[in-house]
């Protein structure tokens, strides 16, 4: 049986009991609905930002989608090759009462962690945010670029 993954990384379609249990124990907090639906409440509320991670010869780049967040609401930490991105946004409390027709925007906190390779120099990382995308560039150590070996024929 194959698991079908959606673009947002959540499971859909038939899920085996073993897969459900693995997801259950991998969640950052206990969420009984994730066993039944394959979705965590955090990802259903869109408080878990999507990420792209890439690398080239000089750096590892992490891009996280954080629309609606300002730079002051985001915290980035690197410790023991573990990159932690967290953020918090609060609902604007307006004094005038409204009758809501549709209300889908999420408010609250998120936290994502990524294990960095040993050759990434986290203490030299640079963080920039533009148009709701947080970009973290982590340079590689010089030793990482010197690991190309030439294969010679005997």
> So what's the CATH class of the largest domain?
Mainly Beta
- Provide the spatial order of strands within the biggest beta sheet: 3-4-9-8
Q: How many runs of DSSP E, i.e. beta strands?
A: 9
- The tally of helices reads 4
Q: How far from one another are the termini?
A: 47 Å
Indicate the structural class.
Answer: alpha+beta
The fraction of residues in strands falls at 25-35%
Uncertain parts: 1-9, 27-31, 33-46
Overall pLDDT level: 76
How does the major sheet shape up? 4 strands, antiparallel
* CATH architecture label of the largest domain: Sandwich
**What general outline do the C-alpha atoms trace?**
elongated
Task: Give, in order, the helices and strands.
Answer: EEHHHEEEEEEEH
Tally of discrete structural domains? 2
CATH topology of the largest domain: Immunoglobulin-like
Helix content: 10-25%
Rg of Cα set: 20 Å
Explain how this protein is built.
The structure is a single chain. The protein is of the alpha+beta class. 16% of the residues lie in helices and 32% in strands. It has 4 helices and 9 strands; from the N terminus they run ββαααβββββββα. The longest helix is centred in the first third of the chain and has 10 residues, at 17-26. It is elongated and about 80 Å long. The model is unreliable at 1-9, 27-31 and 33-46 (pLDDT under 50).
């Amino acid at each position: 049986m194959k698991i079908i993954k959606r673009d947002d990384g959540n499971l859909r379609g038939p899920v085996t009991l073993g897969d459900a249990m693995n997801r259950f124990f991998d969640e950052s907090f206990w969420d009984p609905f994730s066993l039944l639906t394959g979705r965590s409440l955090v990802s259903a509320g869109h408080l878990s930002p999507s990420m792209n991670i890439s690398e080239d010869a000089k750096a590892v780049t992490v891009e996280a989608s954080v629309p609606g967040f300002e730079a002051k609401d985001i915290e980035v930490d690197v410790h023991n090759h573990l990159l932690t991105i967290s953020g918090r946004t609060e609902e604007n409390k307006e004094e005038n009462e409204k009758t809501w027709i549709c209300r889908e925007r999420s408010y609250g906190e998120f936290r994502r962690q990524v294990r960095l390779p040993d050759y990434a120099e986290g203490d030299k990382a640079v963080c920039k945010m533009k148009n709701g995308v947080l970009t973290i560039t982590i340079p590689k150590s010089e030793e990482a670029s010197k690991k190309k070996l030439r294969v010679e024929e005997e």
